[in-house]
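Entry 14. Ran structure prediction on the chain below.
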Amino acid sequence: MSVQMLSWESKLLELAHAGLDRAVSADPVPCANFALDRAYAYCEALTARHSRTFSLASALLPPSKRRAARALYAFCRISDDLIDRPAGRVEADLAAWRRCVLEMPTPCDDPVALAWADTRLRYRIPRLYAEQLLDGVARDGVTRRYATFDDLAVYCYGVASTVGLMAMHIIGFAGPHAIPYAVKLGVALQLTNILRDVQEDWRAGRLYLPLEELKQFGLSEADVAEGRVDDRWRAFMRFQIARTRRLYAEAMPGIRLLAPDGRLAIAAAAQLYRAILDDIERHDYNVFTRRAHIGALGKLRRLPGIWWRWR
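Output, structure tokens:
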């Protein structure tokens, strides 16, 4: 099985393969079972509160992998939230969190750090992927514009492809040849986030749309600031959505390289997220006055079809 290589991929694949070069201990976290159970329960509640899509998709996993996936989500959620704390605290808080989740032994009084440490060791998740995610999150504090798509792809790898690579270890995968698919799926998921959250990110002082590509379509930051939906914006968004869909399509064959009991969950997560692009189109590419989404009923309606394709 092969996958088409794009110009930006070689750098991302180099980062991804580096994670497999380090041995990971499978020793259990030295903590009482009741404390671990409470920590995992906390992560499950946090996942349900913050991401209905991930909560629904991860429910399709076997119980042990399900709670590990939700510990991974909680680790990523807390890491991402740190960047939006008041100025002056972000750097110190990120450094403290990095020590908490990467060093051993992990303190039992932090439920997310504890559940994540147990998951990371239990499933032999390379530490480097967690480090790369934390580096990607930290980049939000210093980089608020991306000149080219190649630059943006590196950011997407840091905050999203790393999540897929860690999830791949929880689910089980056939070998290193599964990596390019996980990388592409992560980029596609993050691009979907970016296209959905243009207005929200702009209000936070961030613009993730490649400036070079905005210029190619005759757009500028002033157009984004005004929330102007015209023919230039529609053409730009059609281009962005087409590329993102292509990445989804190229990533999907990699699901067959995962352990059978995890394929449906990943397929569901990918297809439910991909449907956000349809919602953006249905509303004339207006991401300025509404947040594109797929309601609970829409998600449930899609699940039988996803099951049928991946059963």
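Residues 11 and 223 are 32 Å apart (CA to CA). Will compare against last week's run tomorrow.
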